[in-house]
Amino acid sequence: MFRAAVRLSVSGVRSLTRTQPRCQAVLTSRCYSHGKQETDEEFDAHWVTYFNKPDIDAWELRKGMNTLIGYDLVPEPKILEAALRACRRLNDLASAIRILEAVKDKSGPHKEIYPYLIQELKPTLDELGISTPEELGIDKV
Amino acid sequence: MLHLSARRVGSLLARRATAALSTSSARMASHDVAQAADMSQPMYWDRLDTPLPDKPFKDVLTAADKSLKQKEKGPWSQLTKEEKIALYRMSFCQTYPEMKQKTSEWKTVIGGMFIFLGFTGLVVWWQRIYVYPPHPRTFDEEWQAKQLKRMLDMRINPVEGFSAKWDYEKGQWK
C-alpha cells in the first residue's frame, strides 16, 4: 500500500531462506531492468516468509529488519506482524518496541501511516503483550 | 585553541622532531583520552536507519537485569511498564525521539564561521596598512579629473557610451 516503484534486490535475504522451498521459485526480484519486476504481493510474501522461519536467529532478525528499514517503503502490517512474532520467539521485547519506533520514523511526514499500522497490529500486540512506545511514554523525549 | 596550535608549530620548527613529539604527547596525556573502541568486535550505535544494532547496549548485566531477562522469556503481558522500559534501555541507548533531537550545533558552526571571517578581516586590514604599496599616481583626484576631461575631449564612445552622456553645450552630465 505504501510503496515506491523501485525495489532493491532481496537476493541476500533469499540466500538465508534457501531452506524454504517456496522462495527458490521466486527469482523476479533482481535489479535488472529487463527482468520481471517483483510485485507488491511477492515482496510482502517474501518478507513474511523470512520472518516466519520457526528457528530464526537473532542475527537474521536484525539483518532482516535493518534491510527492510533500508528500503524506500513502510512495511505492510503483515510483515511487521511476522517480525514481532519472530521477536517473541527470540524472547526480545526491546527489539519489538524498537521495530514499532522504526516504522513510525519511516513514515516520515505522513502522520496517518503509523496509527493505521498500530490499528492493524493491535490484535498481535495484545496477544503478545507488546506495549507501543506511546503506552510506555518513550515516544516523547 | 589557536595559541596552542601556534605553540606546537613553533616547537616543531624550533626543536627536533622527537623533542616536539614528546612535548605534544605529554600535553595529550594530561587530558582525559577516551578509550578507543575495539572495532574488531560487533559495535553498538544509534542510527535511524539501523533499528537493531549488532549488539545490545548494555554488555554487563546486573543480577536484577539478568532476572528481568529471565522474566522476559515468559508472557510479556506480565511485565510492568517500568520493566518493559528497563528491558528497552538494556538493549538500546537512545530512543528514536532522542536520536532525532535537534542540537545547537548550528550555532557553533555559524559562530565559528563568523569568528574566522572576522579574523580574516583583521588580517586584511593589517595588510592594507602595512603591506600594500602606495597608490599609483593615476588614482589621485587631480589626475582622475584630468583623465575624465581628456576622455570627453577625445569624444570616447560618443554615440551610445561615455561621451554620449555628456552635454557639451551645457558642460555637465546629461
UniProtKB/TrEMBL annotation, chain A:
Compartments where found: Mitochondrion inner membrane
Bilayer disposition of the protein: Peripheral membrane protein
GO BP annotations listed: mitochondrial electron transport, cytochrome c to oxygen
Record's keyword annotation contains rRNA-binding: no
GO molecular function, one term: metal ion binding
Sorted UniProt keywords: Acetylation, Heme, Iron, Membrane, Metal-binding, Mitochondrion, Mitochondrion inner membrane, Phosphoprotein, Transit peptide, Ubl conjugation
Pfam families, A to Z: COX5A (PF02284)
Primary subcellular site in the record, as a coarse category: mitochondrion
Record pathway: Energy metabolism; oxidative phosphorylation
Source superkingdom: Eukaryota
GO CC aspect terms: mitochondrial inner membrane; respiratory chain complex IV
InterPro entries recorded: Cyt_c_oxidase_su5A/6, Cyt_c_oxidase_su5A/6_sf
Record flagged with keyword Transport: no
Gene3D superfamilies per the UniProt record, alphabetical: Cytochrome c oxidase, subunit Va/VI (1.25.40.40)
Assembly behavior: Component of the cytochrome c oxidase (complex IV, CIV), a multisubunit enzyme composed of a catalytic core of 3 subunits and several supernumerary subunits. The complex exists as a monomer or a dimer and forms supercomplexes (SCs) in the inner mitochondrial membrane with ubiquinol-cytochrome c oxidoreductase (cytochrome b-c1 complex, complex III, CIII).
Family: Belongs to the cytochrome c oxidase subunit 5A family.
Function recorded in the entry: Component of the cytochrome c oxidase, the last enzyme in the mitochondrial electron transport chain which drives oxidative phosphorylation. The respiratory chain contains 3 multisubunit complexes succinate dehydrogenase (complex II, CII), ubiquinol-cytochrome c oxidoreductase (cytochrome b-c1 complex, complex III, CIII) and cytochrome c oxidase (complex IV, CIV), that cooperate to transfer electrons derived from NADH and succinate to molecular oxygen, creating an electrochemical gradient over the inner membrane that drives transmembrane transport and the ATP synthase.
The protein's name: Cytochrome c oxidase subunit 5A, mitochondrial
UniProt source species: Xyrichtys novacula (Pearly razorfish)
Native organism taxonomy: Eukaryota, Metazoa, Chordata, Craniata, Vertebrata
TrEMBL record, chain B:
Compartment(s) where it occurs, according to its Swiss-Prot or TrEMBL record: Mitochondrion inner membrane
Key words of the record: Membrane, Mitochondrion, Mitochondrion inner membrane, Transmembrane, Transmembrane helix
Superkingdom of origin organism: Eukaryota
Protein name: Cytochrome c oxidase subunit 4
Pathway it works in: Energy metabolism; oxidative phosphorylation
Pfam families according to UniProt: COX4
Membrane topology field: Single-pass membrane protein
Family of the protein in this entry: Belongs to the cytochrome c oxidase IV family.
Organism: Xyrichtys novacula
Subunit record text: Component of the cytochrome c oxidase (complex IV, CIV), a multisubunit enzyme composed of 14 subunits. The complex is composed of a catalytic core of 3 subunits MT-CO1, MT-CO2 and MT-CO3, encoded in the mitochondrial DNA, and 11 supernumerary subunits COX4I, COX5A, COX5B, COX6A, COX6B, COX6C, COX7A, COX7B, COX7C, COX8 and NDUFA4, which are encoded in the nuclear genome.
Role this protein plays: Component of the cytochrome c oxidase, the last enzyme in the mitochondrial electron transport chain which drives oxidative phosphorylation.
Assigned GO CC terms: mitochondrial inner membrane; respiratory chain complex IV
Coiled coil: none
GO BP term, example: mitochondrial electron transport, cytochrome c to oxygen
Primary location: mitochondrion
InterPro entries: Cyt_c_oxidase_su4 (IPR013288), Cyt_c_oxidase_su4_fam (IPR004203), Cyt_c_oxidase_su4_sf (IPR036639)
TM region(s), chain numbering: 108-126
